[in-house]
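User: I'm writing a short methods note and want a consistent example. For Membrane protein, PF09851 family, I'll paste the sequence; you return only the structure tokens, no commentary, since I'll be parsing the reply automatically.
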Amino acid sequence: MEISLRKATPIKKIALKVFFFILIFCVGVDCLSNQKKGMASVSDSVVFFYIHKSPETPIFLEPETWLPIASSILNGVHFDEDEKAEFTRRWQNLFKYIGVSDSLVGAKELVRLFSEDEVSKLAELLYKAEREIPDGTPKGYQVILKREDPIRPGLRIRRTIFYIHNNANCLVLDFGEIGQVVDFQTTYTLRDWILYPIQEPITSSRNEVFLSEIRPAGLEYSSNLVTNQKNQNRICVRPLFWTAKLPDGKTSSNPQKTTKGTEERLKVLKELLEKRLITREEYERKKAEILKDL
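Assistant:
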């Protein structure tokens, strides 16, 4: 009898684990279905969700005004041009002028929101999603991007979440999270980092983005309809931006400040390495980024 009880115990534990997994899965699926979204395209670090127009779609996404996204970005493209290549080029051009505070090496310094590789991946997945819309009607998107934490790989990520929708006035980017640290008890899976509800972003300095002072016309912050104040977590990309050029005498630049403060940033970075708050690999990567900005 004693042997039987010992054998039954792990079976009971397994059954409980299976039960809770099924319960969590069902709750997650129900959550996703109520919000009318479905996976559009995915990679190992980025996922795009279609947001379908329905009575449950949050008002901040302005679903009644939606227009196709790809056709807006490709405005003016000649029929014999490579649409995908031009789509990618224009998408990359947009993110040249969008930056964030680099909290790692000095909150007053600005760096690009996404790396060139990340922007290319975003462009590829958005283009694919637009080409493969199941019912052909305009969609909004929830985009989730993760970066692996070099200190706790597999257990910690930095997550960025934003929303995309398009109307007659502008393509809107709404940022809900930027580089949010997310820790996991055990090695995470795809489901762990992509399961996030659709919810209106809270305006905060933690999800602010900054636009380069030198930029083409048509790229601006969205204003609050009530207070008329600029909302720095919401960007409006007007149709003219996609074909606009920089003003005469101006040169393109990332949303960086001047080289003033570069030495201070390198000093802070070295201190972080000496205190073992960052890895040697991350130190070298950030150092290269800082020097590249000179």
